[in-house]
Specification:
heterotrimer; A alpha/beta (327); B mainly alpha (285); C mainly alpha (320); B: 285 residues; mainly alpha; elongated; C: 320 residues; 0% strand
């Protein structure tokens, strides 16, 4: 029986960016919950706002971004109300993020082990020897020979760098780990390695995780629940199986249809016509309307809110009553 | 007509600083071109004994020098040589640098190694002493100054061009052209040069600034062409006649200010142009 | 070890460049018209036989290539000819003056790098604000200012307070070490400040741009997410990366530094190598010019090599 204690509760999160002299909304009315030990997936096309949401949840937005409104209740504390000093104490120790390792997320002039040991020493209270011992243990956990900890990031392959970033994120045993596009820019075999590692860590360390990815297949592999985002909003959220087998939102249905199947008869690849709107040009009303196969004029009048499709499964669409019966 | 619109677009894209630099630069050019019309006196005209080293007054806007010449006229005429040498030397060095950079980048291999060794040589050797000594050896003259400066400052340009050529060489369209049997010169002219030219152009303005600076220093140290006036020459005479000791600020300040303005305006314009023409650069200055 | 191999390669490259410098030096002075032996010994009073003897000694009686060979040999032996003006061996002159130049250059270089970096860091950290604009504009202004002109201005406006020329006051009666040091300091102040100001602009601009680039890198976001405070992120994560182009610049600048020294030493009559070059230019003292050019170039070469090796020690990616 899952506990009713909620580790993370995000309410009505609105994030905007300053571009030039005006503010553009990137994430609108985001609301998610995460219970301990759960893995929540955050999926969507590039630019839908999932990475921004992740940074926003950690209150780690860049200088030109800000949280306009909303609450982020993590372990009882509202992160939006914390001072910069207080939030720094939450970072990494309670809540950590794994960035894409393929990019320059590791400092090129510092040894990989040093970058991990740094956190252990400064935040974890270990002395240098104990810290490096722990680094060795972590390396074994991620499947890299401990002596490689003395190497520099450019001496690691892309997959190794990603695994090092994972080790760095879990080194202080945070309550929540956000994995932001950890498999992007890696080839399929390495992707599998990373996914296996994450799955193993999830069990071993009983991690609570937010897993962000644009690849629905990977989301399905590891997530207990999933939220699909489009143009800065969550359009459908629910238990993995429910959403996968009974998608309610037209966008989600199309996404699932576009996943090529390995087995079964060969089908034409389905893709969704058009492209997601740019941040500045989000249409009035339902933002998916221009590409929606079942959209009608009245969909443009107001923004659809998440309404219940079945227990613990909600979608933001005006036409749900109609589609509920299908599939 | 297409030329005009592209220049107009570039100017429009410049920020305030770049625009200021460009305006300043244009003003200096105008001064240089119209010096004979703007100067109240013949700069070579020496004055009567009582006109020596006069502070600014009614007759002389910027006072006079140690032989009674009008400083203001000297400054205006000085612009001509200072800018002329700047442009000519820069032009020469750009050509040399571009040719070497293109050759090294395009052919690679031992050609590249050889040319890079040569380029390294001219990066390591201190510029000013080399220029000074070479001018001393060849004899101070306007032509010599231009040629020597031009021949000795191409290293920076060559390096930039080479890097750009190297990356362009690997691109698809070059490979395609080569597989179609195009000759090297053709490929360079049609495919690489147009993509390298914007870089060259922005770099040119900075080189002009360097050339102006070098010319003024060479002239100040006594190796300028004595038959011509440049801002550096004016300061040379000021120095050798101990104008500082006499507190002749009207003699010492203006030429230096002009040099600073010239170098500054070319530098700022160069950076601004670089930003506009070089897509890789983020907004910095 | 990868590092050792890199060092050896760089050393070999430097030796080639050194050889090229020597060659350039040789052929440069062959551009002069007239008898090459007169190039080194122009005193008209030297009897013909001595001259011929010298000619043989310097190998100037052979073919161009033989002369070249002798030149290389003599240079390596430290035999650089005799000054027309001072009638002393060039090597001796240079040795004396070099010390004085170092006394001037060393503090100026250190100060300009330190101050320049501070300006650059402040400007980068306060990007887009007034202090950034001021620091940047000031740096560009300084960079555009000729060292000799700045020196002239200092002389004009500060001439009353500080000595205007020379390195020491002549004719001091039995001065103590402290008095001598103070005297030197007073003479050193203006030329050193001039040189520092002229050089610091470039360091500021390079440091600023480099740090701005580094601050937008992903690993800086990682450092922030790790909960590290601002000072630690700046000094432990950002600066080690940002300082790399500054090291490169320092190496290139050594070439320009000598140029600045020539100007400053000339204006302030500081008895260093720069002033020597100026005087030799005026009087066409070719042996001195040839020797000075060699020394200056070799020093620049060594400094470049040192900077490269320093860079490779700091940036692990280069050694790969």
């Amino acid at each position: 029986m899952t506990a009713t204690y909620v580790l993370l509760e995000v309410e009505n999160l609105n994030i905007e960016f300053r571009i030039g002299s005006e503010y553009v909304s990137a994430v609108r009315d985001l609301a998610v919950e995460l219970r301990p030990g759960e893995t929540l997936g955050l999926a969507g096309e590039s630019g839908c706002g999932k990475s921004t949401a992740a940074l926003g949840i950690m209150n780690l937005l860049p200088d030109n971004g800000r949280i306009r409104s909303g609450r982020i209740i993590f372990d009882g504390q509202d992160l939006t109300k914390l001072s910069s000093h207080e939030i720094r104490r939450v970072w990494w120790k309670e809540m950590a993020i794994v960035f894409q390792g393929a990019l320059n997320s590791l400092n090129p002039v510092k040894r990989v082990g040093t970058q991990i040991a740094e956190s252990l020493i400064l935040r974890g209270g270990l002395d240098k020897k104990a810290a490096w011992r722990r680094v060795g243990e972590l390396f074994e956990l991620i499947g890299i020979k401990p002596e490689r900890a003395y190497d520099y990031p450019h001496e690691f392959s892309g997959g190794m760098r990603q695994r090092a970033m994972i080790a760095m994120a879990i080194c202080l045993n945070p309550k929540l780990v956000i994995a932001d596009e950890c498999t992007t820019a890696l080839d399929v075999m390495i992707q599998t390695q990373i996914m296996n590692l994450l799955k193993a860590l999830k069990v071993q360390l009983q991690l609570s995780m937010i897993f962000i990815n644009h690849d629905l297949a990977l989301i399905a592999e590891i997530c207990d629940r999933v939220a699909i985002m489009y143009a800065g909003r969550i359009v459908e959220i629910g238990e993995m199986e429910d959403l996968f087998f009974r998608p309610a939102h037209p966008y989600v249905k199309l996404l699932l249809q576009s996943l090529p199947r390995l087995k079964g008869p060969a089908e034409d690849l389905v893709s969704i016509p058009g492209a997601p709107p740019r941040l500045k040009d989000v249409p009035m009303g339902c933002s998916f309307l221009p590409r929606c196969p079942i959209g009608a004029d009245d969909c443009s009048r107001s923004i659809p809110h998440l309404t219940e499709v079945e227990k613990d499964h909600r979608a933001a669409c005006f036409k749900i009553e109609k589609t509920k019966g299908n599939k | 007509m297409k030329w005009f619109t592209s220049i107009f677009n570039v100017v429009k894209a410049l920020n305030i600083k770049g625009l200021t630099g460009l305006i300043l630069l244009t003003l200096l050019l105008l001064i240089a071109v119209f010096a004979p019309l703007l100067a109240p006196y013949d700069p070579r005209a020496m004055g009567e004994p009582e006109d020596i080293l006069q502070p600014p007054g009614r007759d002389h806007f910027l006072g006079t020098d140690e032989v009674g010449r009008d400083v203001f006229s000297l400054i205006l005429y000085g612009a001509r040589i200072s800018l002329l040498v700047g442009f000519a030397a820069a032009f020469l060095s750009i050509i040399i640098g571009t040719v070497i950079g293109l050759t090294a980048g395009y052919f690679g291999g031992w050609v590249d190694d050889l040319l890079m060794r040569l380029t390294d040589l001219f990066v390591v050797i201190p510029r000013l002493p080399l220029v000074l000594i070479t001018v001393a050896v060849l004899g101070p003259s306007l032509l010599n100054t231009i040629v020597v400066i031009g021949i000795l400052i191409w290293a920076g340009t060559a390096r930039i061009i080479r890097v750009q050529t190297l990356s362009l060489k690997e691109r698809q369209f070059v490979e395609r052209a080569r597989s179609l049997g195009a000759r090297h010169l053709h490929i360079v002219r049609r495919h690489i040069l147009p993509n390298v030219l914007p870089l060259v152009f922005a770099n040119t303005v900075l080189i002009i600034a360097t050339a102006i600076y070098l010319e003024s220093t060479v002239s100040f140290l006594g190796l300028g062409d004595p038959t011509h006036i440049s801002w550096g020459m004016i300061l040379h005479y000021a120095f050798t006649n101990a104008a500082m000791v006499y507190g002749a600020y009207w003699y010492v300040l203006p030429p230096g200010v002009m040099i600073v303005l010239a170098v500054l305006s070319f530098t700022i314009s160069g950076y601004a142009l670089d930003e506009v023409l070089n897509p890789k650069l983020r907004r910095r200055i | 070890m990868k590092r050792k191999r890199y060092y050896i390669v760089r050393l070999a490259q430097s030796l080639i460049t050194l050889w090229l410098i020597l060659t350039l030096n040789f052929f440069l002075f062959r551009l002069l018209p007239g008898d090459p032996i007169r190039l080194l010994f122009s005193d008209p009073r030297i009897p013909l036989e001595t001259l011929e003897g010298l000619r043989t000694q310097f190998g100037l009686d052979g073919t161009l290539w033989q002369q070249y060979g002798f030149y290389l040999l003599n240079t390596l032996k430290g035999e650089l000819g005799t000054s027309f003006v001072y009638n002393t061996p060039v090597s001796k002159l240079l040795a004396e003056r070099l010390v004085n130049t170092v006394i001037l250059l060393f503090p100026a270089t250190v100060l300009s790098i330190l101050l320049g970096c501070v300006f650059g860091i402040v400007a980068a950290v306060r990007y887009g604000r007034a202090s950034d604009f001021i620091a940047l504009s000031l740096s560009q202004l300084l960079w555009a200012t000729p060292a000799f002109w700045l020196g002239l201005l200092f002389m004009m406006f500060a001439g009353g307070l500080l000595p205007l020329s020379g390195m020491v006051t002549a004719g001091l009666s039995a001065p103590s070490l402290w008095e001598r040091a103070l005297d030197l300091g007073r003479h050193l102040l203006m030329p050193m400040i001039t040189l520092t100001l002229v050089m610091l602009g470039q360091y500021a601009i390079v440091m600023r741009n480099s740090l701005l680039d580094v601050l937008t890198e992903n690993y800086m976001l990682t450092a922030k997410a790790k909960g590290l405070n601002g000072l630690r992120r700046l000094f432990s994560h950002a600066l080690p990366n940002a300082v790399l182009p500054v090291i490169t610049l320092a190496a290139i600048n050594l070439g320009l530094l000598i140029g600045g020294a020539i100007q400053t030493e000339t204006v302030f009559t500081w008895p260093g190598v720069g002033r020597l070059v100026f005087e030799a230019l005026l009087q066409r003292d070719y042996p001195v010019l040839q020797g000075a050019f060699l020394v200056i170039s070799v020093c620049a070469l060594l400094a470049n090599l040192a900077a490269d090796l320093l860079y490779s020690a700091v940036d692990p990616r280069v050694r790969a």
